[in-house]
Design brief:
The chain is of the alpha/beta class and 341 residues long. It contains 10 helices and 16 strands.
Length: 341
């Protein structure tokens, strides 16, 4: 397999620069009448981090080299939520985000399988028969070196190679990408977010971490203090950084603005309660966002959440946070307020 790759800081490999989002054909396996010739990659790809981009990008590059279509097979939901529901872990991307991030890497086809107990019970051969060969006629299959599949995780790269030799395709196992001497993984990124280390998490993702959700009504206290905020209803299945105040960005109505983002329980006004995600977009005034779907980007952690003596002290701190957020936004993203991201 030949692929165009770039060098990662740690000495690992990283996929060459991705392109603009493109139209990717979403394939429904039940409607396929004739398998599609393609170079195919398979993976969960939660968060579509640098290691995932290496696999998907390698698939796309190989397809271009062979003059074939490229295809990605992934899952709509987290397989672990089915295999071990008591150990369910928060996800780094929604299905919508995952599809968009994969599309930026340029594949021609995308299959999103619903992981069910029935699918989990399939043997490695049954899974490949039902979900690979019935959908695609692979010229090559690309996976991560640690890819496991089939009932009990009994399928691995060697099983894939044996199956490929019987069905006329090669298997390329991409080595795990490392950063600072440790493998990049979704588990490692979740741990960083849980500690509020959003900048480090962003380095492993290859982009800043972001959450999307609908703007819902809040308490209105931000407006009373002179700082209107957007309260975001985040899917509880997604990973939220630990409580604190962050410099970030808010994307709404096709434009991006610097934002001071608060994740927490509002300790100045409330004794306890659910975790809130709210963003004060600097310079975006007079826009009614209720009911709109926006994206919150986390760039750097500024401080812990804490209780203030009163409204005046809190307002002064919010103003200071906003000033720092603008500086971080312009330094990290190199854009001005209200630019198209």
């Amino acid at each position: 397999m030949h692929g165009r790759v770039g060098q990662c800081e740690s000495g690992g490999r990283a996929v060459a620069r991705e392109g603009r989002e493109r139209v990717v054909k979403i394939v429904e396996t039940a409607r396929i009448r004739e398998p599609i010739p393609a170079v195919v990659c398979i993976g969960v790809f939660d968060g579509v981090h640098l290691g995932h981009r290496e696999v998907i990008g390698g698939c796309v590059e190989e397809a271009l080299r062979l003059g074939r279509a490229s295809a990605v097979i992934t899952f709509e939901n987290d397989p672990e939520s089915v295999l071990s529901p008591e150990r369910r872990v928060p996800q780094l991307s929604s299905l919508e985000q995952k599809r968009r991030l994969i599309s930026l890497l340029g594949p021609d086809y995308l299959v999103s399988l619903l992981f069910t107990p029935e699918l989990a019970a399939l043997s490695p051969q049954e899974f490949l028969d039902d979900y690979l060969l019935r959908t695609f006629r692979p010229a090559e299959l690309v996976v991560g070196a640690n890819f496991r599949f089939g009932a009990g995780g009994t399928g691995d790269v060697e099983v894939l190679r044996g199956y490929g030799s019987l069905h006329g395709f090669d298997v390329a196992a991409m080595p795990l990408l490392s950063f600072d001497g440790r493998p990049i993984s979704s588990t490692r990124i979740r741990a960083l977010l849980g500690e509020g280390r959003v900048s480090e998490a962003g380095r492993l993702l290859g982009r800043p971490y972001a959450l999307a959700g609908e703007v819902v009504a809040g308490s209105g206290r931000g407006g009373e203090l002179g700082f209107h905020t957007a309260n975001v209803a985040v899917d509880p299945a997604l990973c939220v950084p630990c409580p604190g105040v962050y410099a970030g960005a808010m994307t709404a109505e096709g434009r991006e603005w610097p934002a001071a983002v608060n994740v927490g329980t509002r300790p100045t006004f409330e004794e306890e309660g659910a975790v809130w995600v709210e963003a004060h977009a600097i310079g975006m005034d007079g826009v009614d966002l209720y009911g709109a779907r926006i994206e919150i980007v986390f760039l750097e952690r500024l401080r812990d959440e804490r209780r203030f003596a009163g409204r005046e002290e809190l307002a002064e701190q919010i103003a200071a946070d906003a000033r720092v957020a603008v500086t971080v936004f312009e330094r990290r993203l190199g854009r001005g307020r209200g630019d198209v991201p």
